[in-house]
Amino acid sequence: MMTKLRVLLLMLFLAAWCDDSTHSQQPSEPITNTLGMELKLIPAGTFLMGSLVDGTDREDDETQHKVTISKPFYIQTTEVTQGQWTALMGSEPWKGKDFFKEGVNYAATYLSWDNAVTHCKKTKRKRR
Length: 128
Prior knowledge:
It is built from three helices and five strands; from the N terminus they run αβββββαα. It has helices at about 1-15, 80-90, 115-125; strands at about 30, 40, 45-50, 65-70, 75. The strands form two sheets. Strands 1-2-5 form a three-stranded antiparallel beta sheet. β1 (about 30) and β2 form a beta hairpin.
């Protein structure tokens, strides 16, 4: 559970890093880049994050609190697949590692922070 949360937070941070403020802040249909990655605009605004006190399977660190997104950003609607990663980066960091499934439609794994940032910058250039 915590690993999935960390991956989600990393993806959110990287999506914010990939911000392209030239697009409208209005909610829109997802866009697809030249690698087939579907990206959705997350508008600026404030929302409640966390679980209700009586929520099912609530963890102690899930207290509801306000979160403000100060500028809009695009986020991919699914995890980056191994096929998308290889097409853009030309590498396969998961090769020779344990505990993953291999194939073009499976999630890319065993990625370093630096690799993820580089991937994000290259993805930004691939937007149509």
